[in-house]
Amino acid sequence: MDWFNSVDATYRADLRELNELNFARFDAKLEQRLTELKAELRVEIHTARSDLVKWMFMFWAPTAFAVARHRRRGGHRPAPPLALHSFFTARPKRHRWPVRVG
């Protein structure tokens, strides 16, 4: 019986050592793959960010130039002081709608 217990303990120790070695290899591979993934992700984020800045400039630059040109030509004039008052107090026109035919 002692012989079986010693063989069992030997196999357990060998199995534990083998599992630890396999886990160490797995951990090293996982660390390497995560490092590669981080590098790829950084490249993708940098590319997306530069594309976004380029498109933002392409869309907003003409708008800014148009606003600046409009202001330079004197297009910015303040509204009359009673413009909003007359807009909100004016009575709406009465329409005959919907028009009934017949």
Task: Explain this structure.
This protein is mostly helical and 102 residues long. The model has no long low-confidence stretch (mean pLDDT 81). It contains 2 helices and no strands. The protein has one domain (2-73).
Short description:
The protein has 102 residues and is mainly α. The chain is 76% helix and 0% strand.
Total beta strand runs: 0
Unreliable spans are: none
Report how far apart the termini are.
113 Å
Mean pLDDT: 81
- How large, in whole angstroms, is the Cα Rg? 39 Å
Share in β-strands: under 5%
Overall shape: it is elongated
Biggest beta sheet attributes: none
Elements, N to C (H/E) = HH
**Individual helix count:** 2
Helix content: over 70%
- Number of structurally distinct domains: 1
Structural class determined from secondary elements: mainly alpha
Strand and helix layout:
Blueprint: H1 2-72, H2 83-89
Task: Give the tags.
76% helix, 102 residues, mainly alpha
